[in-house]
Design a protein that fits this description.
The structure is a single chain. By secondary structure, the protein is mainly alpha-helical. Helices cover about 70% and strands about 10% of the residues. Strands 1-3-2 form a 3-stranded antiparallel beta sheet. Strand 2 and strand 3 form a beta hairpin. The longest helix has 28 residues. The chain is globular, with a radius of gyration of 18 Å.
Length: about 140
């Protein structure tokens, strides 16, 4: 019986994750972004001028993924790359004015998505859910 419960939890997590991604992607389209690009921008809002390698580490993704994201965001005028002053081999990624202006709209969409996800769940349950999800993440990493 435990196997069935564990299997059901895995399936529920898959369904929730997939639906959240679809819903959130739809919300981000309003600001001309895709899921994942918002996470890269979030890192730059906190620490502008990261290298692409640092972005890979923060985002836990492969270098080609970050390269493609940066290239796409650069084409949209949201970020730009510049050689490091101390080490010309290193390229840093910076926000443009347009990129900085997206912080408010993206945060609004994050909040809207989270509010929808957690509707009907009382604060005590949210705390428990957060604790359990942190433990699950620890178990995987």
């Amino acid at each position: 019986m435990i196997y069935v419960i564990e299997d059901e939890i895995r399936e529920l997590l898959d369904k929730i994750s997939a639906q959240m991604r679809r819903n959130y992607n739809h919300l981000l389209q309003d600001v001309n972004l895709h899921v994942g690009q918002d996470n890269l921008l979030c890192k730059l809002w906190k620490d502008d001028g990261l290298t692409q390698l640092q972005l890979c580490e923060h985002l836990k993704c492969e270098p080609p993924t970050v390269t493609n994201m940066v290239k796409t965001l650069e084409q949209k005028g949201i970020v730009y790359r510049q050689r490091d002053e101390k080490d010309g081999r290193v390229s840093r990624v910076y926000l443009t004015h347009e990129g900085r202006d997206l912080e408010g709209p993206v945060n609004e969409r994050w909040k809207k998505q989270q509010d929808k996800l957690l509707a009907g769940i009382v604060p005590e349950e949210r705390l428990l859910l957060r604790r359990l999800m942190k433990k699950m993440a620890e178990n995987l990493f």
